[in-house]
Amino acid sequence: MNIWKEKTQIIVVLSVLFLLIMCILLGAFIMTKQANMEGGNGSYYQSQDEEKVVLDFYTWGDEGFYVNAIANEFNQLHQNIEVKVHLLDTGDYEVEILDMLETEAKIDIIGARGISKMVQYKEKGYLHDITENIQNSNIDITAYGNMYNNISINGQYYGLPTRSTCWVLVYNKAIFDRLNIPYPTKMTWNEYRQLAKNITEKSNGEFWGGYWIDWIYNFMGIQQSNYLYDDDLQYTKESLEFLYQLMYEDKSHMTFEEIQKREQDWLNNFEEDRIAMMPQGEWFVGMILEDEKQGKSSIDWDLAPMPVPDGQEYNTTLGQYQFAGIVNRCKNKEEAFVFLKFLCGREGAEILAKHGMLSAYTNDSIQNLYRLKVGAKNTDVFFDARRIQEQPVYAAYSDLTEKFMELSEAYFYDNTPIEEVFDAFIIEREKIIEKYE
Fold first, then answer.
1. φ and ψ at residue 212, rounded to 5 degrees
2. Pick from 273, 362, 388, 430: CA 20 to 30 A from residue 330's CA?
3. How would you label 150-183 residue by residue, b for 16+ Cβ within 10 Å and e otherwise?
4. Whole-angstrom distance, CA of residue 277 vs CA of residue 254
5. Of residues 399, 328, 410, 425, the one with CA closest to residue 108
6. C-beta separation of 181 from 198 below 8 A
7. pTM for this structure?
8. Alpha-carbon span 94 to 294, nearest angstrom
């Protein structure tokens, strides 16, 4: 009897232990699942559906090396969500993405270059309103800086900022050393013009004093908040005249015809070691660091503030956000917003900083990560800059910019008088604005 009693006691003890272990495991499972659902800033999310949700994210090719890194880390942290990155041609991105949006192609998230493109996509009905998602989330919108207040469309938000662009002056330190000329610092555009001319003459044409990429012609106007829809376009006109002087009068800059003839992009031109200065943006840093990593570049470069018009406050420059938004026909908008928070929040910002890219979301820690990645360069020019938004929130602005660029080329290439160029633009501007009214 004693033996049976002992066996019974052992069985009872083992049963109690078994139940206790199962309770502990069940509690741990529930806590883990809850943590995955909450995930701080949306970093860890477990879909209610057991089947994996696949999100297709389309953006332009230049974004590839850091967007893929962000998507890969997100996918590792989320068992039931997978983000697939699709890269379209950088030069033709807007045309290609609009073509795809007009079809039944599966697109869940898209990148947008600037607020005017966001407005355009919204007006066509392609973007999902995420205002309520933002309000119900724990995103620290103050981390996006002062320009965040200028990106709502009629009080609603249709995307979150990914990167923050900021124009500065890039220069080749070795050229200044060879010519025994002090490195550039804060200066006006007229001082920049004289310095570029001096470098070209002093080097007997061995070096170009400067280089201007043919992306934006109304830079001086923007620095003075003079936009293409304004009645008075004097500052914008001065921008074109200034570029003409640099290229065709001073001959201190490669002309647009020469740039096209060489069939080389701006980074290759700089890495040829023949360009002393180049107004550029924060994207330059990430791209040249990538080339250095691959052994394609060994240029000794640094950064200075963007030159300013006479009388303008130093450190005034131009910039804008790049965006990502959820497409209206996305079937998994909740999961898409989880990725959007990751891409545009602290986690994505840290990955961008580690790739030498300037994120829209920033704080002291992220800025220090950026400085650590870039090294002994004057990166504070980005953080000290007073940026004027490159594009206003205006539906027609993208079309206005394209038409202005098109007509301006007649001034550079065909010697069309500048007054004729602006008279033609005023006429075309009215037609464009009428289309959006």
1. -120, 120
2. 362
3. ebebeeebbbbbbbbbbbbbbbbeebbeeeeeee
4. 12
5. 328
6. yes
7. 0.79
8. 29
Cβ neighbours, 10 Å, residue 128: 19
CA distance 203 to 12: 94
- Assess contact for 215 and 401: CB atoms under 8 A: no
- Per-residue 3-state assignment (H helix, E strand, C coil) for 254-267: CCHHHHHHHCCCHH
- Check: CB of residue 201 under 8 Å from CB of residue 254: no
384-426 pLDDT tens trace = 999 999 988 888 998 999 999 999 999 998 889 999 999 999 9
Instruction: Report all structural domains of the chain as residue ranges with CATH numbers, in order of start.
Output: 53-165+320-389 (3.40.190.10), 168-315 (3.40.190.10)
- What letter represents residue 38's amino acid? E
- Going by C-alpha positions, the residue among 429, 436, 404, 93 that lies closest to residue 222 is 404
Question: Long-range contacts made by residues 406-411, C-beta under 8 angstroms, separation at least 24?
Answer: 408/217, 408/240, 409/256, 411/240, 411/244
- Would residue 139 be called left, alpha or beta, if left means φ above 0 and alpha means ψ between -120 and 50 degrees? beta
Q: Each residue's pLDDT tens digit in the chain (437 positions)?
A: 444 445 445 454 445 455 555 555 545 444 444 434 333 344 444 444 468 999 999 999 989 989 999 999 999 999 999 999 999 999 899 999 999 999 989 999 999 998 889 998 999 999 999 999 999 998 898 999 877 877 889 899 999 999 989 999 999 999 999 999 999 999 999 999 999 999 999 999 999 999 998 889 999 999 999 999 999 999 999 999 999 999 999 999 999 888 877 656 888 889 989 999 999 999 899 889 989 999 999 999 999 999 999 999 999 999 989 999 999 999 999 999 999 999 999 999 999 999 989 999 999 999 999 999 999 899 999 999 999 999 888 889 989 999 999 999 999 988 899 999 999 999 999 999 998 87
The count of C-alpha atoms lying within 13 angstroms of the C-alpha of 338, restricted to the half-sphere facing its C-beta, is: 27
Q: Which whole-number Å values give the CA distances from 372 to 39, 180, 276, 377, in the listed order?
A: 27, 29, 25, 10
Contact in structure between 233 and 225 (CB atoms under 8 Å): no
How far apart, in Å, are the Cα atoms of 425 and each of 35, 398, 433? Answer: 57, 14, 12
Phi, psi angles (nearest 5°) of residue 173 = -60, -35
Question: Could you give the 3-state DSSP secondary structure of residue 389?
Answer: strand
- Tokens 């200034």 — which residue? 242
